[in-house]
Design brief:
- By secondary structure, the chain is of the alpha+beta class.
- The chain has one domain.
- It has two helices and two strands.
- A two-stranded antiparallel ribbon has the order 1-2.
- β1 and β2 (67-70) form a beta hairpin.
- The chain starts with 10 loop residues before the first helix and ends with a helix.
């Protein structure tokens, strides 16, 4: 998708364009870490990984009956994740 100035935009682009006019206010613009204190994130364990795709496209497969049915791209991504 292209903006008025012919720049490529998507959901993030729209968000960044809106943010330009916002002034920083420490009272409302703050980020808190959602990490657990004293949790050993550098150790092996189970973690959730979320992938965001452009325009929320289903590039890894489709959801059928509440389950993901991987397409070829999804199979490749799953194989690479298992190799981590």
């Amino acid at each position: 998708m292209r903006g008025e100035d012919n720049s490529v935009i998507g959901m993030r682009g729209e968000y960044n364009r809106m943010r330009k006019d916002m002034k920083y206010d420490a009272k409302i613009h703050h980020r808190r870490s959602i990490r657990l204190k004293d949790f050993p994130y550098n150790k092996p364990g189970h973690y959730f990984v979320t992938f965001a795709t452009r325009n929320l496209e289903c590039v890894f497969g489709d959801v059928v009956g509440g389950e993901i049915k991987l397409n070829r791209c999804g199979e490749i991504a799953m194989g690479e994740l298992k190799n981590l």
